[in-house]
Amino acid sequence: MPALGLGTWKSSDDDVERAVREALEVGYRHIDCASIYGNEAAVGRALGAAFRAGDVSRDQVWITTKLWNDSHDPEHVRPALERSLGDLGLDYLDLYLMHWPIAMKHGIRRPTSPSDILPPEAIPIESTWDAMTALPATGLSRAVGVSNFSLAKIHRLHASLGRAPAVNQVEMHPLLQQPRLVEGCRVLGVALTAYSPLGSRDSAPIFGRRDDVILLEHPTVLDIAQRHGATPAQVLIAWSLARQIAVIPKSTHSERIRENFAAQSLVLTDDDRIALGWLDRHHRYIDGNGFFKGTAHTYESLWDEPATTAFERRDTERLIPLPPLRDPV
Ligand code: A2P
Questions:
Q1: 276: CB partners within 8 A, 6+ apart
Q2: Which residues contact residue 304 at a Cβ distance below 8 angstroms, ignoring those fewer than 6 apart?
Q3: 39-75 in b/e burial notation, b at 16+ Cβ within 10 A?
Q4: For residues 167 and 165, what is the distance between their CA atoms, to the nearest angstrom?
Q5: In sequence order, which residues have a C-beta less than 8 Å from that of residue 293 and are 6 or more positions away?
Q6: Which of 144, 270, 277, 320 has the smallest CB count inside 10 Å?
Q7: Rounded to whole angstroms, how far apart are CA atoms 306 and 195?
Q8: Across residues 169-180, what is the average pLDDT?
Q9: What kind and span of H or E run contains 96?
Q10: What DSSP line would sit under 58-86, residue for residue?
Q11: CB 70 within 8 A of CB 106
């Protein structure tokens, strides 16, 4: 899997079509998609145009997309994949991920009532995973994996079938470094991909979130960027690459698409990495709280960690920079 990919969440059809085409021209060889983003057909148009123009061939690009929560029933898994393939105009995927460890009623895109979200025991993640592991043999997806899975849930999948996901795609940046997840995934051979590596500013209005810490404006990030003659986004991308974690910054702007790609040549020093290491405070921008209200799911059941690590601190942490909560790893 190419370590740097283009994220496509929140990109409109017109924007994403242009962005994917430009990204392929610039040299990106990894595009991250999802059914719920609602723009797979536009991504597919850009891919088709690039293939026809000879910019790139299918085997040179890594395409990931994701199973939405309404298709966790084993009998819905393959049809959902086939729908995504149809929209993307592809014969096969490189990677198909279970988007969340939370199942919804079939046909629900965005839940509007708590009853749209099924309790954890209705369709256990193990049965969805069982259906997903049958996909590589069909040729429809070369690899299968998960997203937003805690280490405990990865262990559950591994224990149930003896097969660990190829990839776990999770939110990851200097404020949310998750050293235990990183180490645990390495032990099992699960590659990690970092989503929202730049702090997901454009999701704040969608979720009604007020971000107290703006990652792209954090003084430590700005300072390192300045010393390298780089940009804050490049520092954040280079930090992930230095940890050997794939990274999928989203942008629909040409100059940023280029800038983010160029981050691959930024080499951070040990001092830079130590300074960024101190920023860890287990701060989730995307905490899944839209799944909790009135349902059987909670922060604890989703992330397998106490809610205090994110929620309570969010109310008390106001200042930048903040004192570190634990030693950097
Ligand atoms: P835009 O798409 O308008 O360029 P993340 O990948 O963490 O979710 O971050 C995506 C957000 O960061 C989007 O708001 C995106 O805006 C913005 N962004 C992407 N690349 C850069 C960059 N190089 N500099 C500043 N902001 C960026």
A1: 174, 220, 221, 224, 235, 239, 268
A2: 150, 151, 152, 153
A3: bbebbbbbbeebbeeeebeeeebbbbbbbbbbbbbee
A4: 5
A5: 114
A6: 270
A7: 22
A8: 97
A9: strand 93-98
A10: GGG-EEEEEE-GGG-SHHHHHHHHHHHHH
A11: yes
Q: Find how far residue 215's CA is from the centre of its chain.
A: 17
What pLDDT shows up at residue 329? 43
Report how far ligand 1's centroid is from the alpha carbon of 243 (Å).
21
Q: What is the mean pLDDT of residues 96-101?
A: 98
Q: Do 243 and 280 touch, CB atoms closer than 8 A?
A: no
Q: What is the pLDDT of residues 260-309, one digit of tens each?
A: 999 999 999 999 999 999 999 999 999 999 999 999 999 999 999 988 65
Question: In the sheet that 93-98 helps form, which strands lie side by side, from edge to edge?
Answer: 6-7, 30-32, 62-67, 93-98, 141-147, 167-171, 191-195, 246-247
The Cα–Cα gap between 197 and 236 comes to 7
Q: Average per-residue pLDDT in the chain?
A: 93
From the list 28, 37, 96, 299, the catalytic residue is 37
Ligand 1 surroundings by CB, under 6 angstroms? 7, 196-202, 216, 231, 233, 249-253, 256, 259-260
Rounded to a whole number of angstroms, the distance between the first and last alpha carbons of the chain is 25
**Tell me: the pLDDT tens digits for 130-147?**
999 999 999 999 999 999
Coil, helix or strand for 171? strand
Token couple for 173: 């940046």
What the block records as the tokens of 13 is: 């059809």
Strand intervals (E) in 117-231: 141-147, 167-171, 191-195
Q: Please, what are the domains in the chain?
A: 6-314 (3.20.20.100)
